[in-house]
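Subject: design request, 545 residues
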């Protein structure tokens, strides 16, 4: 009997579980059995691995072969086990020294010709390997930059199984000849100069998600003319990470404002960058050439997105949805009233907790989902209700049904609600070129966030929206009498208890932007206006918050 083992990683959401890949050869009729709760794509690895081993110049063992994936109770999916399975088989066949692969972590898909292809989830897989004590990992050449983000781990990038065999057996690497063959094949395909090493890293498109890439041009807030109230609401949302709802007719600038919100947010910290990159790696949305996500992501799914696309899920083990792809960034739902009410209400739990728990028959997982939500909707189905020019022909019952698609419990979790009015020609001409740019507003946002972080030093909170209402009232009281108007609104039923807590959080953000030590009555009044949309003579009518 011949036996060898190596290791790989099974991903459960964005968390990895170390899997020991064992290969056993026994005399008998030639057969290949794969056990250990594999899914369909992993079962197909038997044919991929056999063809890759033969095309890499190694001999396939003509014996009874059993490959086990341990622990067997953990569901395993995907093609990332191919490389470890092939090396375990070659170790059992003594083509490779079994001791050379026993402590190696291997991640990668194999093509039939022996090329090693990129797979999703390399970063969380390497993080799991590092946590388990592994210090050497083998990944596809295209994933070296991503895997190298994990400290204290030696990363070996390989282009093909033949190259890995040569490295493990101290043979001469086949680099030069292999590159020439790849270039010849590329030329025959009509893509001169593009090697198959690059073709091995195919990108898998997202499920209806639009995620900004690291190399895209940052949109400038100065390009938005007018909309002083909406711009200030955008600044408050960025400073305190408050959820935002824009309501207004088509063409008023709701989408333009939302698209410029990520530029106002501070860059991600080192820990946040790793969290976001891990999610994007699993979702397959990492932009080429940018292995580390350093800017807050911006995700804008179509309003027809399903529950699985927005919240997470799918067949088998769940995959991250748009709320997780927007982790530590902005999730923008345009035409929110056209979205499924059931899908929208499913966001109520992650808006409060910052994570999603997806349960399926095959497993349960927790996915991060701490995002800044921006909703945009028209006032009625035709979008012209309330406009000075009129023209709205929607029935009152149709308008009520349209607005009811955004449920009260969902809107109660949205801190800022702003009506975006259409621009007049005089406003467009007068304000052109005079609006503040993104850099100026982002500097104020950064200062406000620094004030909040200093105030909450020693706690688990960093922004005002994170602090529970009872802790905020007890630990950081406002100025005497500042909450009088908000408490009166609560007595009249205009605010719920949750709404009062959110007004208090927004008031602290307004105070941070204004440089106040604690919220004044004017700060609370401004927060109430942003919350209820009722004009109260706050500083919203001034030039700055």
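Subject: RE: design request

Done. Sequence follows.
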């Amino acid at each position: 009997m011949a036996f060898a083992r190596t290791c790989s990683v099974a991903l459960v959401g964005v968390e990895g579980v170390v899997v020991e890949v064992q290969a056993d050869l026994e005399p008998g009729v030639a057969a290949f059995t794969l056990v250990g709760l594999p899914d369909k794509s992993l079962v197909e690895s038997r044919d991929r691995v056999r063809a890759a081993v033969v095309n890499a110049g190694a001999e396939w063992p003509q014996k009874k072969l059993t490959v086990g994936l341990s622990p067997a109770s953990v569901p395993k999916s995907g093609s990332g086990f191919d490389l470890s399975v092939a090396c375990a088989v070659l170790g059992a066949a003594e083509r490779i020294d079994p001791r050379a692969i026993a402590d190696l972590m291997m991640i990668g898909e194999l093509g039939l010709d022996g090329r090693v292809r990129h797979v999703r989830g390399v970063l969380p897989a390497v993080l799991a390997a590092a946590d388990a004590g592994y210090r050497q990992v083998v990944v596809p050449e295209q994933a070296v930059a991503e895997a190298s983000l994990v400290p204290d781990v030696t990363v070996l990038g390989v282009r093909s199984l033949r190259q890995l065999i040569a490295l493990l057996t101290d043979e001469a690497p086949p680099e030069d000849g292999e590159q020439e063959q790849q270039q010849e094949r590329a030329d025959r395909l009509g893509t001169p100069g593009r090697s198959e090493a690059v073709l091995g890293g195919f990108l898998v498109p997202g499920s209806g998600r639009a995620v900004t890439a690291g190399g895209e041009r940052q949109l400038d807030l100065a390009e938005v003319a007018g909309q002083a109230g909406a711009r200030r609401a955008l600044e408050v949302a960025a400073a305190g990470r408050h959820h935002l709802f824009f309501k207004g007719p088509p063409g008023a600038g709701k989408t333009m404002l939302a698209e410029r919100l990520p530029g106002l947010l501070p860059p991600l910290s080192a820990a946040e960058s790793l969290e976001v990159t891990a999610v994007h790696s699993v979702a397959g949305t990492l932009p080429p050439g940018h292995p580390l996500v350093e800017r807050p992501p911006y995700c804008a799914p179509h309003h027809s997105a399903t529950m699985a696309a927005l919240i997470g899920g799918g067949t088998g083990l769940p995959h991250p949805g748009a709320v997780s792809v927007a982790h530590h960034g902005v999730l923008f739902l345009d035409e929110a009233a056209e979205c499924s009410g059931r899908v929208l209400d499913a966001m109520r739990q992650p808006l409060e907790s910052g994570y999603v728990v997806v349960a399926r028959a095959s497993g349960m997982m927790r996915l991060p989902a701490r995002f800044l939500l921006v909703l945009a909707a028209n006032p009625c189905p035709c979008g012209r209700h309330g406009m000075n020019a009129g023209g709205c022909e929607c029935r009152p019952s149709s308008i009520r049904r349209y607005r009811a698609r955004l449920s009260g419990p969902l809107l109660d979790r949205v801190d800022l609600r702003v009506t975006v009015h259409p621009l007049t020609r005089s406003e467009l001409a007068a304000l052109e070129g005079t609006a503040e740019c993104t850099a100026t507003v982002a500097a104020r946002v950064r200062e406000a966030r620094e004030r909040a972080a200093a105030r909450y030093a020693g706690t688990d909170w960093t922004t005002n929206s994170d602090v529970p209402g009872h802790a905020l009232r007890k630990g950081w009281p406002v100025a005497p009498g500042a909450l009088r108007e908000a408490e009166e609104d609560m007595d009249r039923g205009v605010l719920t208890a949750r709404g009062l807590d959110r007004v208090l959080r927004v008031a602290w953000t307004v105070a941070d932007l204004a440089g106040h030590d604690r919220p004044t009555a004017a700060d609370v009044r401004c927060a109430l206006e942003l919350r209820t949309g009722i004009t109260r003579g706050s500083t919203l009518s001034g030039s700055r918050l």
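The domain at 243-414 is CATH 3.40.50.300 (Rossmann fold).
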